Structure formats: structure tokens, C-alpha cells
Amino acid sequence: EAALTEFDTRSRQATQMGAQAFARLLKLAEERDSGQIPRIARFLAATYNGQAFQLDLFELRAVDVAISDDMLCCLDALRWARADLHTLVPNGDARVRAVIDRWGLRWPEGA
Q1: DSSP string, the chain
Q2: If you placed Cys at 80, which of 9, 11, 55, 92 could pair as Cys (CB 3.0 to 4.6 Å)?
Q3: Distance set, CA 75 to CA 50, 60, 65 (Å)
Q4: Residue 81: what pLDDT?
Q5: Which of 97, 103, 85 is nearest to 32 (CA)?
Q6: What is the pLDDT along the chain (111 residues), one digit of tens a residue?
Q7: Which of 36, 33, 35, 22 is nearest to 95 (CA)?
Q8: How deeply is 99 buried, as exposed, middle or buried, from its count of CB atoms within 10 A (0-12, 13-18, 19+)?
Q9: Predicted local distance difference test score (pLDDT) of residue 111
Q10: 104 in the Ramachandran plot: left (φ > 0), alpha (ψ -120 to 50) or beta?
């Protein structure tokens, strides 16, 4: 029972940290325009729909440490699977879809 309590605590913490990290990344993709932002947009798209938008893990090496730390927090939250990350930020579904459009990411045929 102690292990279940520990896992529950870790899951809640990871989800909270992931939500905060996702919000920061989403804000960057919405407001900034630098060489790293398309990578952030691809990451956000992959967390939104991993079947439609594949994630190249080497993207973690091509962004600033703070950004990759946020990406890792998001991945940890996804690992615990308490919620889809886009549901943890205000108007997340529409905002992520807008980022996908803004950065020219293409949905596969039939998706």
C-alpha cells in the first residue's frame, strides 16, 4: 500500500509540473518566432496526437536546457497518464490546433 501511495503522489506531482511546463511551451509557440520554436511546435503536436505527429527525441538536444527540461516534464506527465496535457491549460485544444496551423505542421491524410 505504501508503494501505491508513493506512485499516486509522484503521479500528481508529475501531472502538475507537466501542466505548468506545457503551458510555458505553448506560450512560447504562440508568441515567439525563433529557430527553436518550430521544434517546440512539433513537440506540442506530438503530445497532442502522437499518431499524427511523430516525435524525434533528438529534438530535446536541439533546444535550450530550460525548454528541454519543460519537454521532459511533459513526458513525465504523459508517462503517468492522468490527463492529456492540452486539457490541463485553458482552451488547450484550440490553442494547440492553432500552433499546429501556425507552424505549418500537416495532418496526415485521413487524420
Answers
A1: -HHHHHHHHHHHHHHHHHHHHHHHHHHHHHH--STTHHHHHHHHHHHH-TTTS---GGGGGSS-HHHHHHHHHHHHHHHHTSS-GGGGSTTHHHHHHHHHHHTT--PPTT-
A2: 11
A3: 12, 11, 15
A4: 83
A5: 103
A6: 888 888 999 999 999 999 999 999 999 999 998 889 999 999 999 999 999 999 999 999 999 999 999 999 999 999 998 889 999 999 999 999 999 999 999 998 866
A7: 22
A8: buried
A9: 62
A10: left
Q: Are 46 and 54 in contact (CB under 8 A)?
A: yes
Instruction: Tell me which amino acid residue 70 is.
Output: D
Cell of 35: 529557430
